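Backbone-to-sequence.
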């Protein structure tokens, strides 16, 4: 049946901040759904607390609420907007849990809101482990033997029955949070104890171990007419025991016999019917015992999941778009396929290529964390590549990762005739880590047999055989008499890059590329068409292949290539994708043909209907040049935009320009000038601006001499970085020499920078546009945490709170001087710090920064679109009155302008040390947050409280607060603590802090630090474990205290107690407590704020 006539408006719940396990694939699915619903003439109301997404753009929904995803707040929105229906299946587990809470509280019934896309019973049947187990067994399939427990004692009895090792999983959590393998009773006590507190319903499931089995997923869709399609089958290369989000996966599945696949398909279809998902997508995971072929159903997600984004991009079948249409009444046979235009959506996609997904990890941010991969997801992003065979797709995906050494390498192979080397190698192969695939490849190349490697790691022999094939091709390339067209063709048909061929032949990459071009060996581009070439495709969605004919269509209009940001990682996330998508929209509207090049399957930019043409290719110089070459053959190319996708495309700008490609917007020379200390220093001198004292060192002795001259504390870091990788604040000489000994590579080209660290400074962040004539300041943000905490991790507020007009004026002048001096054309981000009334310039980045989406939403000005138009020749004067306001800018906001607060969301709980403790959660100059939320209101305390709630930090309204503060902050702490006592909180403090407070006449109870306690004393850690402390204030300084407070902070993080580590944030939190106590948050949509 067509569109339902009884629904006029729909409330869509987004997924909130980007966290590990729930990343921007839900921005992609939510954005698609909102567009579809609006095109059907429905009014769309959206709630999502994440400012960095396209989804929260004011033009995606009719009313956009950037508010915390909290049942009370959603109720206020429902009361105000009165939607007819609620669609909760596109915002991951966050949206699903919120919808269940609203249903259980009777809110939906009270306002007459219908839940569409999934009914509560179906959600319960799919998510509740016992109900799901019964259904699977009724369908005649098997599940792993298991026991459900609600207490630790039940868990211990259950373990006796099942035997170790066993898997522990809490119910209703996401990304495998809290789950793990227990090999003995101590493991079980630790994991199940934490799991019981993570689960919504305080239950955990223990199940028999299926470690080492093969793991598969099916993506299915069903409509109310009972049409079911299997959109895609996905196979994990890593066996069971590694979370699918952390495993290398392939689509379609490659090692099942046809009979096994059909059985799995039948089980999947029976389950989706029995669970009752009748208007949308779901994802079912299976395990197959390689020895016996026994198939076990692991679990099901009755919603659009992380794998749905991958399946959509892999097949060209837009699952989220279909799910939204099904939810409002259509059936699959009534929806035409977007790509072919002639087949209906009830046709199952067929693939004539292989897709490989590889996860991207950032363990370097958490040096203490255990890098073992388990059933708790730890990856922060992923890449996908398409190829005509598995070897090509695997090698392309590996070079998409943008990590040093991510491609296979054949130098210095281990000598396995030495028994110790052989043992160590097999041990590495058996240990699941992000690098295991390299150990496997090197082991096979060194002479281990397929059977030995399979026994060690459980990876299917077929995949190992393919890796052996890559090794054989490498041998063939190395041994060939000359590098002729036959050798190059074989190499290219197995995905070897020019750089890999150069390494094997001891040539330079440029020489190999030169020979290849001289022999006219270039890739052609094939199309993802959902039907293996059976029908004509109308959407140019391409991947490279060294076949005979290309499918790139000729065109008339000039094209602009936009380089995306590659895989998400900490420091370069969805914010950059936001800028790329905005550029695509603006440049398309300006009359150009837009071409997107990217390899990240989670994002809106790689949706086939975002740009006019999409190339799903690695962002390496070789691959981008081939896309440019193919597009030049198709029609005129105006140029390439490199400044919107973060560091990835910025790093290619130099080479592209040198190769004669027109680079639009800010030129590579300007980019280098801003990154080079000396040249940038000269720009500042000419403008009469100050930078903190600094020097560059190549040796440890030099570094020590510079530090002695500048004075400690100093900030040390490698020269070219993004997201503050490898930075540290150093307090004395010994610590400095330690850093130099362990710093990554220090060389003459890559010196270490030593800066004076400004203590107690207020940090200021500015985003601005410059076109060569005029400057437009998007916003001047004031950080809540003091300088020294990476700007990506610090909370910030816009318009600024405490900066006087005089300071703002100096910031405006400095911004203009730097934009002119560096000769920016487009976006520029500058970080300043002010201390003792001196304004210091910390750094300038001539590119879109991660605060662009936040500033754009807080001031309702679309900066990324304006920057893209400046890149293609428009001016700020042109844009005023259209994209930019007629007069004024983001630095001259009126007093009644709403206050927006950005708060970072940190992933500490997912990372444990080898001993199983949480890694330290102190903030510093290294960026560690995965995402952010925004709170917006009339005043700062309310906006801050909304930000905290959005980041799921529930500030307590009563109870006990633990306070321990370093000496230099003791004075600043007195007033906020006094206010806590006046509000009726009990205060517990450590010896030194308690003494200061009692002299001020503030009553506290004293408690021992962890190391001061005798055996019978109770310490802070005991109180935290017992749950008697409701908030922890722990402000460390210097080195010793940081280490000593670690135990306290780790315990707070592990027990989910709100933790505050800076005085500034403590003061802000205290002012917000009044607001939290009154419980009533007003809600307003972005459209209303900007009106």
């Amino acid at each position: 049946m067509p569109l339902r006539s009884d629904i006029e408006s729909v409330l869509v719940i987004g997924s909130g901040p980007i966290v590990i396990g729930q990343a921007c694939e839900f921005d992609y699915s939510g954005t698609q759904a909102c567009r579809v619903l609006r095109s059907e003439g429905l009014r769309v109301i959206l709630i999502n607390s994440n400012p960095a997404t396209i989804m929260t753009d004011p033009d995606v929904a009719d009313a956009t609420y950037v508010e915390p995803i909290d049942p009370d707040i959603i109720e206020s929105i429902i009361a105000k907007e009165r939607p007819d229906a609620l669609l909760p299946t596109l915002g991951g587990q966050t949206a699903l849990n919120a919808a269940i809470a609203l249903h259980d509280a009777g809110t939906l019934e009270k306002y007459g809101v219908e839940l569409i896309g999934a009914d509560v019973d179906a959600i319960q049947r799919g998510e509740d482990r016992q109900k799901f187990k019964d259904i699977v067994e009724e369908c005649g399939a098997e599940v792993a033997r298991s026991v459900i427990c609600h207490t630790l004692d039940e868990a211990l009895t259950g373990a006796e029955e099942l035997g170790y090792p066993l898997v522990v999983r809490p119910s209703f959590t996401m990304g495998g949070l809290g789950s793990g393998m227990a090999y003995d009773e101590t493991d079980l006590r630790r994991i199940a104890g934490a799991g019981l507190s993570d689960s919504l319903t305080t239950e955990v499931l223990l199940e028999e171990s299926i470690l080492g089995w093969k793991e598969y997923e099916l993506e299915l869709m069903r409509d109310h007419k009972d049409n079911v399609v299997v959109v895609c089958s996905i196979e994990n290369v890593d066996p069971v025991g590694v979370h699918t989000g952390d495993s290398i996966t392939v689509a379609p599945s490659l090692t099942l016999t046809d009979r096994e696949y059909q059985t799995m398909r039948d089980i999947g279809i029976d389950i989706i019917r029995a669970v009752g998902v009748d208007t949308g997508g779901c994802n079912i995971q299976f395990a197959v015992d390689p020895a016996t072929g026994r198939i076990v159903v692991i679990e099901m997600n009755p919603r659009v999941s992380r794998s749905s984004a991958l399946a959509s991009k892999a097949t060209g079948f837009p699952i989220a778009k279909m799910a939204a249409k099904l939810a409002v009444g259509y059936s699959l046979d009534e929806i035409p396929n977007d790509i072919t235009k002639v087949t209906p959506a009830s046709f199952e996609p067929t693939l004539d290529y292989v897709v490989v997904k590889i996860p991207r990890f950032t363990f370097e941010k958490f040096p203490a964390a255990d890098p073992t991969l388990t059933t708790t997801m730890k990856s922060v992003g992923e890449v996908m590549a398409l190829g005509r065979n598995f070897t090509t797709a695997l090698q392309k995906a590996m070079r998409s990762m943008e990590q040093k050494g991510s491609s296979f390498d054949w130098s210095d192979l281990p000598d396995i005739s030495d028994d110790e080397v052989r043992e160590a190698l097999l041990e590495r192969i058996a240990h699941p880590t992000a690098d295991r695939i390299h150990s496997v490849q090197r082991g096979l190349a060194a002479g281990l047999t397929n059977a030995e490697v399979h026994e060690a790691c459980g990876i299917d022999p077929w995949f190992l055989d393919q890796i052996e094939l890559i090794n054989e091709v490498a041998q063939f390339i190395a041994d060939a008499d000359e590098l002729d067209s036959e050798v190059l063709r074989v190499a290219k048909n197995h995905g070897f890059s020019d750089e890999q061929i150069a390494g094997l032949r001891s040539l330079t990459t440029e020489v190999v590329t030169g020979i290849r071009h001289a022999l006219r060996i270039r890739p052609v581009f094939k199309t993802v068409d959902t039907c293996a070439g059976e029908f004509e495709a109308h959407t140019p969605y391409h991947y490279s292949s060294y076949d005979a004919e290309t499918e790139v269509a000729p065109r008339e209009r000039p094209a602009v290539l936009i380089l995306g940001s590659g895989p998400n990682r900490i420091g370069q996330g969805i914010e950059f994708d936001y800028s790329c998508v905005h550029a695509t929209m603006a440049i398309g509207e300006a009359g150009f043909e837009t071409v997107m090049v990217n390899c990240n399957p989670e994002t809106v930019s790689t949706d086939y209907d975002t740009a006019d043409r999409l190339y799903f290719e690695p962002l390496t110089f070789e691959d981008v040049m081939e896309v440019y070459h193919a597009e030049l053959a198709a029609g005129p190319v105006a140029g390439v935009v490199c400044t919107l996708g973060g560091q990835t495309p910025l790093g290619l700008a130099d080479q592209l320009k040198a190769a004669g490609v027109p680079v639009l917007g800010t030129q590579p020379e300007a980019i280098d000038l801003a990154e080079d200390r000396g040249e940038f220093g000269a720009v500042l001198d000419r403008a009469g601006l100050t930078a903190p004292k600094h020097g560059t060192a190549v040796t440890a002795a030099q570094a020590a001499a510079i530090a002695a001259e500048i004075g400690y504390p100093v900030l040390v870091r490698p020269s070219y970085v993004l997201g503050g990788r490898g930075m540290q604040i150093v307090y004395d000489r010994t610590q400095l020499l330690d850093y130099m000994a362990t710093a990554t590579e220090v060389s003459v080209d890559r010196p270490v920078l030593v800066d004076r660290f400004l203590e107690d400074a207020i940090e200021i962040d500015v985003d601005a546009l410059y076109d060569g004539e005029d400057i437009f300041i998007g916003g001047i943000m004031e950080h809540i945490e003091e300088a020294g905490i990476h700007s990506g991790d610090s909370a910030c507020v816009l318009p600024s709170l405490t900066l006087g007009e005089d300071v703002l004026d100096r910031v405006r002048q400095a911004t203009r001087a730097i934009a002119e001096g560096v000769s920016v054309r487009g976006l520029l981000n500058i970080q300043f710090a002010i201390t003792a009334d001196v304004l210091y310039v910390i750094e300038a980045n001539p590119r879109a920064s991660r605060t662009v989406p936040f500033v754009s939403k807080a001031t309702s000005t679309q900066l990324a679109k304006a920057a893209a138009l400046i890149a293609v020749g428009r001016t700020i004067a042109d844009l005023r009155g259209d994209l930019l306001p007629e007069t004024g800018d983001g630095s001259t906001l009126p007093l009644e302008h709403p206050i927006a607060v950005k708060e970072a969301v940190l992933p500490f709980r997912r990372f444990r040390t080898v001993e199983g403790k949480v890694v330290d959660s102190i903030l510093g100059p290294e960026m560690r947050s995965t995402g952010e939320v925004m709170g917006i209101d009339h005043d700062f305390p309310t906006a801050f409280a909304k930000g905290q709630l959005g980041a799921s930090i529930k500030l307590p309204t009563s109870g006990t607060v633990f306070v321990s503060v370093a000496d230099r902050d003791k004075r600043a702490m007195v007033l906020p603590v006094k206010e806590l006592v006046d509000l009726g909180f009990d205060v517990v403090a450590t010896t030194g802090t308690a003494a200061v407070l009692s002299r001020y006449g503030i009553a506290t109870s004293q408690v021992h630090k962890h190391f001061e306690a005798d055996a019978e004393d109770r310490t802070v850690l005991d109180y935290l474990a017992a749950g008697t402390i409701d908030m922890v204030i722990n402000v460390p300084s210097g080195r010793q205290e940081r280490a000593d407070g670690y135990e306290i902070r780790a315990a707070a993080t592990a027990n989910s107690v709100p933790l505050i580590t800076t005085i500034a944030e403590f003061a802000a939190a205290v002012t917000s407590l009044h607001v939290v106590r009154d419980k009533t948050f007003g809600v307003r949509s972005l459209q209303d704020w900007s009106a």
